[in-house]
Amino acid sequence: MNTTIPNSMMRGLAMNIVKPESIAVFCLTPGGVRLARRLQTHLPLTCFTSDKLLEEGFLPFNGSFGDTLREAFKQYSALVVVGAIGLTVRVIAPLVNDKMTDPAVVVIDERGQHVVSLLSGHVGGANTLTRYLAGILGADPVITTATDVNEMAALDTLATQLDAEMQDFRHAVKVVNQMLVSNQKVGLWWDTPLLAERERCDTRGFVPVDCLDQLSLEQLPPLDALVCITLRDTLPLPADQLATLPVYKLVPRRVVAGIGCRRATSLQTLVELLQQQMAENHFDIMALRAIGSVTIKKDEPALHQLAKCWRVPFELFSVGELSRHEQRFPASDFVRQTVGVGSVSQPVAWLMSDGKLVGNTLRQQGVTITLGVSH
User: Which of 293, 289, 306 lies closest to 369, judged by CA?
Assistant: First the structure.
């Protein structure tokens, strides 16, 4: 059985809650069960149906279809209903809250002729899932978001593909996507370290800007807005351009921080030192993807609070994992006696970034922080 989810679909679901493979399918008729069977050969699915239609590989509704769908709305990344759109809308209507966090909802008719992206098309990944399911079934994908209808990229889709953050994201998406579908000129500039990622992203409709100097030299048609994809805290733009051109900075989450600290270090200390280390290396704090430390720190409150503060994972590495890279870095006898390995922040950052460390290690107030960049 092929249960590999394509990378494009994983990126489409990546910004939503739960896991990319967390997809629930709801079947209301025998035809729906047969269709779900076809999908199960391509994807890892959790399939629900009624008691009278229950067969191996399916779970029974917990009460009714509506009860089960409402419960799944809070637990799964994506919901696929093989049935009527009207019924689906009536069930989920009270739960719909925010396109940034609502799950993807897709509806398929039981004959498998149409696959409809109903909710959370961009950030939730419903449009990507719709296209993929339609491809499996040989069905027509029905997608109504304006950028897709006009065969253009969308800022929120681009952010999803890059796993990127932006200040006032909701407002920026609304403004930039409206510009794109209105045939206004929205420039797109990629910072050099991120150029290799351009090929895997949908950038239709954006005006490529290879060099920001083109703006001041007027080598481009006049732009209505500019999107800059960068990890930097400050954009290399002339002051006059920043004053006259709406500029939106899209920051991929690529920076990792290996952290060692004394027991009972305060959250305030860690926040201030991490911000300092990011600033010294000219990284926007939004570029932070994860923090990490040694397993002995698994119960260190401030590290958990720091991860929660910046909404990033807290990754842990064993002494054995760190010891294999210890010879690369200066060792401390005190740290070895305390932790079991001579260095923490540097081998942690090394492992988290596949050896792509950046800048010098910060050592202050009993804290060490080493940064790396992962792609």
Answer: 293
- The residue among 81, 203, 199, 200 whose CA lies nearest residue 130 is 81
Tell me if 128 sits within 8 A of 101, measured CB to CB: no
- Those residues whose C-beta lies under 8 Å from the C-beta of residue 52, and which sit 6 or more positions away, are none
Q: Report the number of secondary-structure helices (H) and strands (E) in the chain.
A: 15, 17
Report which secondary-structure segment, H or E, holds 36. helix 30-40
Structure tokens at 366: 């009993």
Cα dihedral sign, 136-141-145-151:
positive
Residue pair 3/43 in contact (Cβ under 8 Å)? The answer is yes
Contact 256, 310 (CB under 8 A): no
What are the tens digits of pLDDT across the range 320-365? Answer: 999 898 888 888 888 887 887 889 999 999 999 999 999 999 999 9
- In the chain, where do the E strands start and end? 23-27, 45-49, 58-60, 78-82, 104-108, 114-119, 140-142, 164-165, 186-190, 207-209, 225-229, 247-252, 255-261, 288-294, 314-317, 357-364, 367-373
Amino acid symbol at 104: A
Which of 194, 132, 130 is closest to 163 using CA atoms? 194
The model carries a pTM of 0.73
The neighbour count for residue 314, using CB atoms within 10 Å, is 18
